[in-house]
Design brief:
By secondary structure, the chain is α/β, with parallel strands linked by helices. The chain has helices spanning about 45-60, 75-90, 105-115, 130-150, 160-165, 165-170, 190-205, 245-255, 310-320, 345-355, 360-365, 375-390, 405-410, 425-430, 445-455, 460-475, 480-490, and strands at about 1-5, 10-15, 25, 65-70, 95-100, 155-160, 175-180, 210, 225-230, 265-270, 275, 285, 295-300, 330-335, 365-370, 395, 415-420, 435-440. The strands form three sheets. A nine-stranded mixed β-sheet has the order 2-1-3-5-4-6-7-8-9. It has a seven-stranded mixed β-sheet with strand order 12-15-14-13-16-17-18, sandwiched between helices. Strands 10-11 form a two-stranded antiparallel ribbon. α3 (about 105-115) packs across α4, α8 crosses α12 and α13 packs across α16. It is globular.
């Protein structure tokens, strides 16, 4: 359970979105001590983080760093904000997290922008004056509540297209404004440029703009205002903490993903340190027996989003050669009712279901479409951890990808990975050293062949996984991320220099 504030009231509830437009959700994130990171990095890195936090806290002089995004649960942005906000608070920096609200049309428009910025048509709809008018009306309905929570000198970090339209109001409230894009495409064709033009009047007003890759930034942005900061994962979180093989198997058996009974009643650790039992079971579309504990399992975890190409992974799995006959495939996404800002999830899952039903019997009983409940964010994270920890091979066959934190999570767990050489995934995996990159994300035969090679070469697979974990330790943990944020925050405050 997490304490949230809505329209001035404090309510205890699971993290979620408020239904009425204009009601802003404030998520109260518990502080997390940066010392939790030291076992995963080293004292030198821990000391550098503590020193930077002290400098920022002194420079802020009681002002806050406020993150604003469009959902409190589901997807990498919410997880990222949750972790970084917690560590910042634990280090003595006042940090807050606000979540805007919008109606279904607003989220259709912003999903269209999302798809277009990835170079995809999405629903094919326009981004014209009607769409701009609706977008700005929703922004205006959120502004009054948000502005009342922002003080002069606060640092406001706006995340993704959904919040870009708040930039002018935040500046007017006296804040310094950073806009962070977690998406983008290296190729700036007409589709991509149309989406950027929609956002241009808003993001040009920000003091700084952050991208995961420099190539994502539109050419009309002042290069002096552009910063490149890669995302990170929290190694001490319920999703990424070390989970033994036996514990992972017990969790999967408990939630309905293994043909076995748990040896011991599994539980998960909440952020307050308490232990909680697994109450919810996954929704699994399956035909025939679930995998046994020792059967090889190939996993892709992603939103039900066409750009994640879950259907393509399914087809690639059917094209594996010389792979073990007892290998299973889990395609894992969130329950479609649990992600507020993704209106296409149900459609994508329905398309995958139709393709699954058309598979030959011998293949279909080894392919499982899994929807993980979002009722309890911490329980959800623990289930995902168990799935990743149990996996034999992890796949991320995205057709486009801003960064791909599911890849980072798999790397941290020491898993062999097959992933598309797109977007931020190329920043993470060195082909043949810390995973296998697919030069063509549409090449399902190559994907199936790569999965099969890893399944039949466990020694090589283990070597790739070990190298991946060390690369994640070096580059993609929160201390590096927070240090870059600290440097940028100080840049927004010339008086602190």
């Amino acid at each position: 359970m997490v304490v949230i504030k809505c329209a001035g009231e404090i309510v205890t509830a699971s993290v979620g979105r408020i239904a009425d437009t204009g009601k802003v959700l404030e998520v109260e994130v518990p502080p997390r001590s940066p010392d939790l990171l030291i076992p995963f990095v080293n004292k030198r890195r821990g000391s550098a983080l503590a020193e930077a936090a002290q400098t920022v806290s002194h420079a802020l002089q009681g002002r806050a760093v406020i993150n604003i995004n469009s959902t409190a649960r589901g997807g990498g942005v919410a997880e990222l904000v949750q972790g970084l906000c917690g560590y910042a608070k634990g280090a003595g920096v006042e940090s807050r997290w606000l979540v805007i609200d919008g109606d279904s049309e607003f989220f259709r428009i912003t999903k269209r922008i999302h798809n277009n910025l990835h170079g995809e048509k999405g629903d094919g709809g326009p981004l014209g004056e009607a769409e701009r008018g609706h977008y700005e009306r929703v922004m205006a309905e959120n502004v009054a509540t948000i502005s009342a929570k922002v003080r002069t000198g606060d640092i406001v970090i706006l995340h993704d297209p959904q919040t870009a339209g708040l930039a002018a109001a935040m500046l007017q409230a006296g804040a310094r404004v950073i806009w962070r894009s977690h998406i983008g495409h290296e190729r700036h064709d007409e589709l991509v440029n149309t989406a950027w033009e929609f956002l241009r009047p808003y993001i040009q007003q920000a003091d700084f703009c952050i991208f995961s890759l420099a190539e994502y930034a539109p050419a009309w942005l002042d290069s002096a205002a552009v910063r490149v900061i890669n995302p990170s994962i929290d190694p001490s979180s319920a999703k990424n903490e070390a989970l033994g093989l036996d514990a992972a198997r017990d969790i999967l058996a408990q939630v309905g993903l293994l043909d076995a009974a748990p040896v011991t009643a599994p539980s998960f650790r909440r952020e307050d340190g308490s232990q909680a039992p697994f109450i919810h079971r996954v929704e699994a579309l399956t035909d025939g027996a679930l995998p046994r504990p020792d059967d090889p399992v190939v996993v892709q975890i992603a939103r039900w989003d066409a750009l994640k190409d879950m259907a393509g992974v399914m087809r690639a799995f059917t094209r594996m050669e010389h792979a073990p006959a007892d290998a299973h495939l889990f395609l894992v996404g969130p329950s479609t009712s649990g992600v507020a800002d993704d209106p296409e999830a149900g459609v994508v899952l329905a398309e995958c279901t139709a393709q699954w039903r058309a598979l030959p019997d011998a293949i279909r009983h080894r392919v499982h479409l899994v929807s993980v409940p979002m009722d309890d964010r911490e329980e959800n994270a623990a289930i995902i951890n168990a799935i990743q920890s149990h996996a034999t091979v992890i796949v991320q066959k995205s057709l486009a990808e801003g960064f791909g934190l599911t890849v980072t999570e798999a790397m941290w767990k020491g898993k062999p990975i097959v992933a598309s050489a797109v977007g931020g995934i190329r920043q993470q995996i060195i082909d043949g050293q810390s995973g296998i990159l697919l030069p063509d994300p549409w090449d399902e035969a190559a994907c199936g062949q790569a999965i099969g090679k890893l399944l039949t070469n466990p020694t090589w697979a283990a070597e790739l996984g070990a190298a991946a974990r060390e690369r994640a330790r070096e580059l993609f943990l929160p201390d590096r991320h927070l240090l870059q944020y600290a440097q940028l925050i100080l840049e927004t405050m010339p008086e602190a220099a």
